[in-house]
Amino acid sequence: MTYSKKVLDHYENPRNVGSFSDNEKNVGSSLVGAPSCGDVMKLQIKVNSQNNIIEDACFKTYGCGSAIASSSLITEWVKGKTLKEAKKIKNSEIAKELELPPVKIHCSILAEDAIKAAIAD
Ligand code: FES
Ligand code: FES
């Protein structure tokens, strides 16, 4: 299987890797795993409580290149969006942007699950 250029770009230069410090306010966190492969994604968002806009986002992913690329991409996409807008991001949009092959679709689902769980938190 070959990775698309966009996957490789995010894999080699992941955006927003890390986590927020414990005493930071208005942070939503999630930790989701893909049952089929065991890969794990941790995603955090920092939200402006006045206007519900996501000001910052970061992730840590223990998983395949597509999972890393999907989480890297989604942290870029959610910044500047309201929680409501971010909730609407579909895994199919991630898969399309990264040109993921069918066997890697679940990696993008992991990213959608992670952002939804972080928003819920
Ligand atoms: Fe282990 Fe994806 S199956 S890295
Ligand atoms: Fe499981 Fe990518 S192989 S998240």
UniProtKB/TrEMBL annotation:
NIF system FeS cluster assembly NifU N-terminal domain span: 2-121
Keywords: Iron, Iron-sulfur, Metal-binding
Cross-referenced Pfam families: NifU_N (PF01592)
Top-rank lineage group of the source organism: Bacteria
InterPro entries to which the protein is assigned, alphabetical: ISCU, NIF_FeS_clus_asmbl_NifU_N
GO terms for MF: iron ion binding; iron-sulfur cluster binding
Iron listed as a keyword: yes
GO biological process, one term: iron-sulfur cluster assembly
PANTHER family for the chain: IRON-SULFUR CLUSTER ASSEMBLY ENZYME NIFU HOMOLOG
UniProt family annotation: Belongs to the NifU family.
Primary role: A scaffold on which IscS assembles Fe-S clusters. It is likely that Fe-S cluster coordination is flexible as the role of this complex is to build and then hand off Fe-S clusters.
Protein name: Iron-sulfur cluster assembly scaffold protein IscU
Gene: iscU
